[in-house]
Write a structure and sequence with these properties.
Length: 112
Amino acid sequence: MTVNNTAQRQRTYRDRHLREGLAKRLNIIIEPDSKWTLELLAKCYGVTQRTIIEKLLLQTEIEVIRRIRREQADDGIVKSRVSDYYGGRLRLKSELFTLSLNSESQPISVTA
């Protein structure tokens, strides 16, 4: 397969997913060590880098919801704070942003 055929196949794939709303394009620049870690995790689990990123985002979101539930005893407040999260209004302190695996965390499943 030539480079042009490969590039065209990739372009067709991207265009179809973007057009059909199956995906959104994300362009980022990250630290070399983070990129290396992303590549290693994808290779280790036998999945794409996209899958690793999507699963880590989902795991982080689940942790935010769990944190809200741990910190609030009143169901009404929990619902309000979850609603604030999904509405983009919830603000948490960035220094509390951690992805530690504690007794409540479940291992991330990266199966495709």
